[in-house]
User: What shape does this take?
Amino acid sequence: MARWCSARSCRKAETVDELVHRSVPSPNWDERKLPVSMAVIHYTEMPSVEESLARLIDPQAKVSAHYLISEAGEVIRLVDEDKRAWHAGQSYWRGHPDVNSASIGIELDHPGHALGYREFSEAQLDALVPLLARIVREYDIPRANVVGHSDIAPARKIDPGELFPWDRLAEYKLCLPRPEKLEQGDPFHNDAAFYLALERFGYDITEGRKAVEAFQRRWRPHRIDGEIDGQVRAILFQLLLDRDRGHAR
Assistant: This one.
């Protein structure tokens, strides 16, 4: 029996299928409570893609993502995008405490920091970029809402880590670029003012030092020490300034 769909929904399905190599449905999902407005990048921190896949579809594990991308560049769909996958855990971003409901989760097959942290493979990035581009376009996701797991859960997570090439995504306007020109050297009067600004930008500042580390991991990856110094203050100020000017959606 032929499956009926409207022209628009058929075109969408065809586009998605062109970017997905296979589907392995995970039982670990529930219904969304919010529209999609975010995309979250993770790494698996497991020895192989087979082990990662087994965990993401294991009902006892109670974790999942919408997509898993192998180091060889294979894109595996695990949860339909209209469903709430369980990838973010306890998390927060820009006022949303239920990131799972508001996001698409993408897991990258990678050993992570625990098993030998290294650069991400070219094949994997070549698969990620068009998938993420389609997701961002389809849901009109702001660049500021394309984030890493460490951004939304700074007290618990450090993935995808300091070697993840955010600059490559930024070249395609899929995330915010790191500020290159800093207009003011040290705009905040004290650490309390910095933390309030960091929260305004989107971070959970409950554990302040961890939040600073997460910010550094994303925006100044060459030095992650949890210290609020002049460079970190200037980067945050520039990000907020660009957003207030409408340049950082």
